[in-house]
Design brief:
The complex is a heterotrimer of chains A (160), B (117) and C (540). By secondary structure, chain A is mainly α. Chain A contains 5 helices and no strands. Chain A is 62% helix and 0% strand. Chain A is elongated, with a radius of gyration of 19 Å. Chain C has a domain of 219 residues. In chain C, the strands form 2 sheets. Chain C has a two-stranded antiparallel ribbon. The two termini of chain C are 31 Å apart.
């Protein structure tokens, strides 16, 4: 686990990793139109990152990704979620989780309601919250897998 | 009529096997697998409740007309929340098992003593 | 002036610690002391808003701060909509007298714990995650105590159990902490999954998750009885009622002392969940005076007596300081369940055909309610003292301690206050609530009162033994150089001790103004205007 697998596996992982990333981000962004959303797409991207961890080995991955960067990314995702929820106070009606971007003309983003897979620019605040939740889930699940790999690597470190 | 009861029988089977694994197995990892089985059973029960006969998935597509029967969307959200909580609990339990193995050297429940006397 | 704040107070109480928990890692990267001060400011702000909200709901009509927010003693807050029209598909926070009483705990305990942990945790690593998890645990506990929706209750229950398991295993180099946390999370997860199963049964029958809507339309068939049994078992597992109490002394005893304080708050929160589901959701059918519900009351009384016995007898044999206090905590939860079970068993139907609690039943309800607050304060103070002794001497076994009273003067005074309060001696607060419990259970059946008084005497004996072993006695040479504990720990203990002494000197004031509205909210289902349901569904 600590030194990765053979050359063939590493090359194929390098080819398929961007495809999995794009698919996961597609699922996150289209959460208000097709099945999916924040957690589902985040789990797909986190599995892609776990695949990289297994193929390239934990030593190489931990040199590229530090745990504290993941912690900051996770906090940003969470603050984005609560911030968007609380922003509703500025726009009219006073309650939390106010879908304030829907059906108004001041900010021309995300204002209508639409159907079909090509209308990303719809449904108010929901895509922004999906992105925030997706960011948090990617950072959180990848941090869990990374810390477990590090712990097992230290556990067997004396024997190898 | 039996075809509509199969999900409920599956739920009962999963929960009973999960409880058996938690109560009667000695290895810590097998206890965790038992908890995962109980959780899968409860999630299956939640999602079976949203079924209506002859319905389609509850997504607005360009060709869904008014009056099409859709299955209930609320239990899908409940099941998703439950799956997320299950993932977090599983991660925490596995981390604790790693620490227990490092301290005690064994995964047998009978040998993990509680205090020094 | 407080009108705007009080409109949004139910949501702010949960949102402020949550936001603080997510900002803490970022603040911690800048400076360590800044992060500690940030955590204390967030908890103090939160406590202030909680006390305002509680005052507004519990106070009399003429002295309320914002009277038109509270209709008939209930304030609702709807997430994501203007008003809760039927079909109710929103998440609602509904704060009535019972909730306003329970969140006072959430105001006092986290404040004392976080001030205490400024010095207590000074030498440990990973303090960023400690403060994040403590604030997350506070948010989860307060959400659990205020929500009016069953699935939301489950989500907050799981948030608190995950955060507490991570905090109980905080000292990962101590092998007993890790295995206590594993035991805690296995039992907690199984309980929560059964709770979810019962919610799914009720949802399948009634297509509603809101507690008020369910209370309005619930029948008493076989499926609802099964769901009720699952609810009681799951919440009793989390509250530490025998025979499911095995995790409690280990988890309370091996966690750092400030963590135990807030975990005790969540245990009482699960006990509150039991009350809410029993008396409000199933209220019509449970408080009905039929043979089935009286038998149910007696069964709860039987479990409570078992809990008291197990707690006190196991506490006598312990050598470890914190585990002994943990077993005393188990016995105290037995007292609360005894009061509520006896009240349920004393329901009768009077001549006009209306159902009512007998007068002893009402006293038992008041005693049990009052005991929730007193028990949290007393046992919390004892745990903080135990933490102080561990900080000073790094020992937790009674065989190796001795003669500490010469060096730790203030800690000894706090321990004496805690000991007198837990055993129910006058003039502190334990006496007031335990006297009400003894009085009411004696009238229902004398044996219950005799068991309760005996258990109190045994608890006093246990704690006097601890006092003698740890504080009095000859001075041990290895404790020559210990000094008094740092001042932030003393302030944490002082907050709890001052409230204990205040409640002890003026129990009437507290019972009439704070406990009585909570008990009225429990009995609300008996009269025709059920305020809890009317606040959501509109109209009597």
């Amino acid at each position: 686990m600590s030194s990765g697998m053979s050359k063939i596996v590493k090359t194929m992982t390098g080819v398929t990793f961007p495809l999995m990333l794009i698919f996961g981000l597609y699922v996150i962004l289209h959460g208000h139109l097709t099945p999916g959303g924040g957690f589902q797409g985040g789990a797909i991207v986190a599995s892609a990152c776990a695949m990289v961890l297994i193929a390239y080995g934990s030593v190489w991955t931990m040199k590229k990704v530090k745990e504290k960067h993941l912690s900051i990314l996770e906090s940003l995702g969470a603050i984005g979620f609560i911030g968007v929820a609380g922003l509703g106070f500025l726009f009219g009606v006073n309650y939390f989780f106010n879908n304030f971007l829907l059906k108004q003309d001041v900010i021309p983003l995300f204002n209508n309601v639409g159907t079909g897979a090509s209308n990303i620019n719809t449904a108010g605040v929901i895509p922004l919250m999906n992105i925030a939740v997706g960011l948090k889930v990617i950072a959180g699940l990848f941090a869990i897998v990374l810390v477990m790999a590090y712990a097992t690597h230290k556990l067997k470190g004396g024997e190898k | 009529m039996l075809t509509f009861q199969i999900p409920y029988l599956a739920v009962a089977g999963l929960i009973i096997i999960g409880l058996y694994a938690v109560l009667f197995k000695r290895n810590l990892i097998k206890m965790i697998i038992g908890i995962t089985l109980i959780e899968s059973g409860v999630n299956l029960f939640l999602i079976t409740l949203s079924f209506r006969e002859g319905s389609v998935a509850p997504i607005y597509t360009a060709d869904a007309t008014q009056g099409t029967l859709m299955s209930l969307p609320v239990p899908q959200a409940l099941t998703l929340t439950s799956i997320v909580i299950g993932v977090a609990v599983l991660a925490l339990m596995l981390t604790l098992v790693i620490h227990i193995y490092r301290h005690y050297g064994t995964l047998d429940v009978r040998k993990i003593k509680e205090d020094d006397n | 002036m407080f009108e705007d704040l009080l409109t949004h107070a139910p949501a702010l109480i949960v949102a402020i610690p949550l936001l603080g928990a997510f900002l803490t890692p970022l603040v911690g990267k800048i400076n360590d002391k800044l992060r500690n001060i940030f955590a204390i400011i967030i908890v103090a702000l939160n406590s202030f808003i909680i006390l305002l909200l509680s005052y507004n709901i519990l106070a009399h009509e003429s002295v309320k701060l914002a009277p038109d927010l509270v209709k008939n003693g209930v304030q609702t807050y709807i997430f994501g909509a203007q008003s809760a029209n039927y079909p109710v598909a929103r998440i609602i926070f509904e704060v009535d007298g019972l909730n306003a009483y329970m969140i006072i705990l959430g105001a006092i305990l986290p404040l004392a714990a976080i001030i205490y942990s400024w010095s207590f945790m000074k030498d440990e690593t990973g303090q960023d995650k400690y403060y994040t998890l403590m604030l997350l645990l506070t948010a989860g506990m307060l959400g659990m105590m205020m929500t009016g929706d069953l699935f939301n209750f489950f989500v907050f229950l799981e948030i608190t159990s995950i955060a507490s398991a991570a905090l109980i295993a905080y000292r990962t180099n101590n092998k007993f902490s890790v295995q206590a946390a594993f035991k805690y999370i296995v039992i907690s997860t199984i309980g929560a999954l059964f709770f979810l199963f019962a919610i799914a049964i009720l949802y399948g029958q009634y297509n509603a998750l809101n507690m008020a809507v369910l209370a309005n339309s619930i029948q008493y068939g076989l499926l609802e009885k099964i769901a009720f049994v699952l609810f009681v078992v799951a919440l009793a597992m989390k509250a530490g009622i025998a025979p499911m109490h095995m995790w409690l002394p280990g988890a309370y005893g091996r966690a750092p002392a400030s963590v135990t304080l807030i975990v005790m708050g969540t245990t009482l929160g699960s006990f509150y969940g039991l009350l809410r589901i029993g008396f409000t959701v199933y209220g019509e059918h449970l408080i009905s005076g039929t043979n089935l519900s009286i038998a149910l009351g007696w069964m709860l009384v039987g479990l409570a007596i078992l809990t008291i016995f197990v707690g006190v007898l196991m506490a006598l044999r312990q050598n470890d300081f914190k585990k002994m206090i943990g077993f005393a905590a188990v016995a105290e939860i037995g007292y609360m369940l005894l009061a509520f079970g006896a009240a349920l068993a004393s329901v009768y139907q009077d001549t006009a055909g209306a159902v009512a609690f007998s007068p002893e039943g009402v006293t038992a309800l008041r005693g049990g309610m009052f005991h929730i607050l007193n028990d949290a304060l007393d046992i919390g103070l004892l745990f903080l003292v135990a933490g102080a002794i561990y900080y000073v001497s790094k020992e937790s076994s009674l065989n190796k301690l001795g003669g500490l009273a010469r060096n730790l003067k203030y800690t000894t005074i706090f321990f004496v206050i805690g000991m007198v309060a837990v055993s129910g001696l006058p003039p502190l607060n334990g006496f007031a609530s335990k006297l009400m419990i003894y009085q009411s259970t004696y009238a229902i059946n004398p044996i219950l009162a005799i068991v309760a008084i005996l258990a109190s005497i045994l608890l006093l004996a246990v704690f006097v033994k601890v006092f003698y072993a740890a504080f009095l006695g000859p001075k041990l040479p290895k404790f020559d150089k210990v000094k008094e504990v740092p001042i932030s720990m003393l302030i944490g203990m002082l907050i709890l001790a001052c409230i204990i002494i205040f409640i002890g000197l003026f129990p009437n004031l507290v019972v009439e103004n704070v406990v009585q509205p909570a008990v009225d909210a429990l009995q609300a289902v008996l009269d025709n205007t059920n305020n809890y349901i009317a606040a959501v569904l509109g109209g009597a």
